[in-house]
Design a protein that fits this description.
Blueprint: H1 15-42, E1 47-51, E2 57-59, H2 60-76, E3 79-84, E4 91-92, E5 101-109, E6 120-128, E7 151-157, E8 161-166, E9 172-177, E10 182-187, E11 198-200, H3 213-224, E12 227-228, H4 234-244, E13 246-250, E14 261-262, H5 263-276, E15 280-282, E16 299-300, E17 302-305, H6 307-314
Parallel strand pairs: 3-5, 11-12, 11-13
Antiparallel strand pairs: 1-2, 3-4, 5-6, 6-7, 7-8, 8-9, 9-10, 13-17, 14-16, 15-17
Length: 315
């Protein structure tokens, strides 16, 4: 019999508690994938005519994916609140405000790829609340370092629908099987190759990077011989890096002096996955998982990959 998401319940100390939440992520992913497949026929491509809290133009599918994800987290009965990249404030699930867990999500990473039928994804992490269960969940519950993350993962909407996740006991990939209508284990115990692979970055911004990262990249390329691959959706670029090796980087630049990627919605969950797969996740002189968050939408520079390649880049 194929191994399904039920296998998560057997993994580590947190697997049983996290299985209902991750199954909820799976249901959201299936629904989002269906919306993506039919978006062109429903007139759902293009801008939503609104901006998110970061001042970025929202796509209609950003909004729809956000709604789908919130609904599925509510349906688990185990999630008291959701922090979303698309929402300015923490969304409390009133009927389950006593529940133990909060989920942080980028519901549709890489949505600028949608108009050209490029890959997109969902990124998520789970933390346990700090406030008493009798209180209303508070934004302070989300401001926990990556060391406090219980589970994290991403969904890739590509030629196949795939979820990669960890509950702190390694990294495993599950691919949706249309025949059985369920996610089945396809990539067990993923470990990033220590050498080889590719570097992934928007190199056109190289002359605007801060902290001498342009020179660092040139040196790394000379030292490692890595070629470049870049999709422009963090999930797709991270997935390739995880399976093939190399390094993904998004440095700070003159426009985004504190970095572009969000600590809670992108850097921490992907850093958690990378470390669980035997890799390294760094920001500005500090491990991503050691950063103490100060705000719901905080941004940081990000460098993710194998120890060999990250050290070559930052050394």
């Amino acid at each position: 019999m194929p191994t399904t998401l039920n296998n998560i319940a057997k993994q580590g100390a947190n697997g049983a508690a996290m299985m209902p939440v991750i199954q909820g992520v799976g249901r959201a992913a299936i629904e989002i994938a269906a919306v993506l497949r039919g978006a062109v026929f429903r007139g759902a491509l293009g801008g939503a005519g609104s901006e998110n809290v970061q001042g970025e133009q929202q796509q209609m599918l950003d909004v729809l994916s956000d709604e789908i994800f919130l609904d599925e987290m509510r349906s688990t009965g185990f999630v008291c609140a959701v922090g979303s990249e698309e929402q300015e404030e923490l969304l409390v699930i009133e009927e389950y405000s006593h529940a133990d867990y909060l989920v942080l999500v980028d519901p549709l990473d890489g949505s600028s790829n949608l108009d050209v039928d490029g890959p997109v994804g969902t990124i998520f992490s789970v933390v346990k609340r700090k406030t008493p269960n009798s209180d209303t969940p508070h934004v302070s519950d989300t401001l926990q370092s990556g060391k406090e993350v219980i589970a994290a993962g991403y969904v890739l909407y590509g030629p196949s629908l795939m979820m990669v996740c960890s509950v702190g006991d390694g990294v495993h990939g599950y691919t949706f099987n249309p025949g059985s209508a369920r996610f089945e284990l396809s990539h067990g115990d993923i470990r990033i190759p220590e050498t080889g692979g590719y570097y992934s970055v928007n190199e056109s911004n190289k002359d605007k990077w801060l902290d001498g990262m342009g020179d660092h990249l040139d040196r790394m390329k000379a030292d490692t011989g890595l070629g470049m691959r870049y999709v422009g959706a963090m999930v797709a670029d991270m997935h390739r890096t995880l399976l093939k090796g190399g390094v993904f980087l998004y440095p700070a630049d003159e426009k985004n002096t504190t970095g572009k990627l969000r600590l809670l919605y992108e850097a921490i969950p992907m850093g958690f996955i990378m470390e669980q797969a035997g890799g390294k996740a760094m920001s500005s002189g500090i491990a991503v998982l050691d950063i103490e968050p100060e705000a719901l939408h905080q941004r940081v520079p990000v460098y993710l990959g194998s120890h060999t390649n990250v050290d070559s880049l930052l050394g």
